[in-house]
Amino acid sequence: MRIIDRYILLSIIRIFISAILVFTFLYILIDVATHLDDFMANKVPTATIINYYLSFFPVMFVQTSPIACLLSVLFTYSGLNNNNEIIALRASGFNFIKITRPAIFFGLMATALVFLVNERFAPQAAMLAQEIKKTKIEVNVKERGNKPPPIKYLFFYGVDNKLFFIDEFDPADKTLSGLTVIGQDEKQRMTEKITAFKGVWTGHNWKLSNCQLARYNPLDPTLTSDVQFFKEKTFELNESPDDLLKQRMSVSSMNIRQLKEYIHRFKASGAIAAINSLRVDLHQKIAYPFACIVIIFVGLPFALITGRRKGLTFASVGIALAIGFLFYVVNAVGLALGKGNVLPPAVAAWFAPVLFVAAGFYLVRKLF
Predict the structure, then answer these.
(1) How far is CA 252 from CA 60, 151, 154, 339, in A?
(2) What is the pLDDT, as a whole number, of residue 141?
(3) Pairing mode, strands 190-201 and 175-184
(4) Which residues of the chain have pLDDT under 70?
(5) Which residues does residue 154 pair with via DSSP β-bridges, in sequence order?
(6) Cα(229)–Cα(175) distance, rounded to whole angstroms?
(7) Residue 229: which H helix or E strand, with range?
């Protein structure tokens, strides 16, 4: 590696580490202010609070790395620009590729690091942080009088070898909607299927509305031996609202392999909306780390614009930062369209990266 490449790369790494630390500090500061009442009401020990935020660090690292990459590259090249070093490099015969090679290399390494952390450390960290928050920090919602938000897309194994799929569960009202229950025999063959538009917990069992009960031949699940329709019927499903809360599993607590197995296990359930949402999350886990290199590639043309006034460079940095935040917005819109079944899961997850890579190539061709 040439001296100039090492010089640029070391500057990028130093600023990247500083940006991650600043973002982490700001996140902790805001989160502490938000949960200060919980900490004081439960008299949470300082050691528990420290352990909570340390366990959450891998998740914060993954979430903030793309914008930290963008900032580190922009400030490094803006500094070179302000000192007329970019002009000197161009005068020496360096083209866009040679000048930005350290940044591209750093972006690829950051992408690999984010992918590794997101796969190996973030799922376990998310589970540990949620457990600490639930058992040692949060005040009981009944005591506080707050209404917990509904939970969307809940799937799990229940007792008696049953698979549960719920589009939405409201723990406050103890109601659910979009219920699908798959009964299986000891060899995991489908024996019955219960679907219901809505369910209400009566205190002992579930009262389902607009429901259907279908029984299947285990040797040939395509054959139904009996199908019954009910406008309203009470079922003993052996799963109380508290059981539903205990059984839920967050996508953030699974890596790619676990999520693939989870989807494969439930893909024959018929819960189309839930499975489609999981597939979007799966592709997002693969696509998200590439945000590091993508927004670097889009921001670099602006950071390399030269002019007589330093203000031009700072204006370019501001424009590039706006593009970085725009990436998050476009990505969120793409995921929402995917989960709304407007776009295929793979297209939804890769929509923002592909769009911004195309924008980056356009800017490079136009400005250089």
Answers:
(1) 12, 15, 14, 16
(2) 40
(3) antiparallel
(4) 1, 138-148, 157-160, 188, 220-225, 245-250, 265-271, 306-317, 320
(5) 166
(6) 20
(7) strand 220-235
**Burial category of 110 from C-beta neighbours within 10 Å (exposed 0-12, middle 13-18, buried 19 and up):** buried
DSSP secondary structure letter of residue 139: P
- Count of C-beta atoms within a 10 Å radius of residue 296: 28
The pLDDT, as a whole number, for residue 268 is 58
Q: Alpha carbon of 142 to those of 133, 134, 146: distances in Å?
A: 16, 14, 7
Sign of the Cα torsion 11, 12, 13, 19 reads: positive
Instruction: Note the helical H segments in the chain.
Output: 3-34, 36-42, 46-55, 57-82, 85-91, 96-120, 122-132, 141-144, 241-247, 256-266, 272-287, 291-303, 310-339, 345-367
Tokens of residue 364, six digits: 């490079």
Query: Do 236 and 245 touch, CB atoms closer than 8 A?
Result: no
Residue 279 in tokens = 């597939």
Neighbours of 336 (CB within 10 A): 13
